[in-house]
Each structure stands twice: as C-alpha cells, then as structure tokens.
Amino acid sequence: MTLLWVMTGSAIGAMARLWVVQSLQKRLGHAFPWGTLAVNVSGALIIGLLAGGLIPPLSANSQPGWSLLVIGVLGSYTTVSSFSLQTLALWQARQRRQACINALASLLLCLGAVATGLALAQWGAG
C-alpha cells in the first residue's frame, strides 16, 4: 500500500512542479532558474511544517500521510537534479555570478525555509 501512496503523491508533485516552473518562466524568463528555486524553497517550508507536526495525522509516524505527501508529493515536487543541472549550465555559459547566486540562494533559502516551517509548526503546537 505504501508504494501506491508514493506513486500517487509523485504524480501530483511532478505536475505541480511543472506548473510552477512553467508559470514562473513565462513571467520571469529563462535567464535564471526562478521556478526551480521557488519549488525547492516552498517544498522545504512545507516539509518543515510537516516534520514539525503541524498536522499530526501527517507526521513522520503516520505512514500513509508521510508516504503520500513527503516522499511522494514533495519528493517529486522539489528537485536537486534540476537545480544541479541549471547551476552547472549557468557556470558553463560563463554566467558564474548567476551560478553562484543560484547555489547560495538555494542553500540559504531552503535551509531557512525548512527551519521556519519547523519553528512555525512547533510554535503552533504550543
């Protein structure tokens, strides 16, 4: 049953990522990977909220909820591979400043988002 939850969540997460990335590319262009940055930061915030127990039935102890949302949806929604490829492409195109900005922004914003989500969940739990 766990496999079914992960597969279902993965399909949802992949479609959500595609929609967010394409929407941001239409608005902001392709010069910088804004879409990938947005999905990774928002995914980090959401996983922080869930890991912090904001919604107890969806915590790590809840196998179906965790498998669906964290492993499936967020695992497919967020993307280290796209981030890595886009950062390398910027570097190889001699846009080294943008490559470094993308790497640092991704690291700092994602860590900040997961910490914020965790803190908010713990604060909300009292």
| Helix/strand class | mainly alpha
Question: What is the averaged pLDDT score?
Answer: 92
Q: Give the end-to-end Cα distance, rounded to a whole number of Å.
A: 33 Å
Strand content: under 5%
Describe this structure in words.
With 126 residues, the chain is an all-alpha fold. It is 82% helix and 0% strand. Helix 1 packs parallel to helix 3 and helix 4 runs antiparallel to helix 5. It is globular, with a radius of gyration of 16 Å.
Short description:
By secondary structure, the protein is mainly α. Helices cover 82% and strands 0% of the residues.
What order do the helices and strands come in, and which of them pair?
Blueprint: H1 2-28, H2 34-51, H3 63-77, H4 80-92, H5 96-125
Helix pairs in contact: 1-2, 1-3, 2-3, 2-5, 4-5
Any descriptors?
single chain; 126 residues; mainly alpha; globular
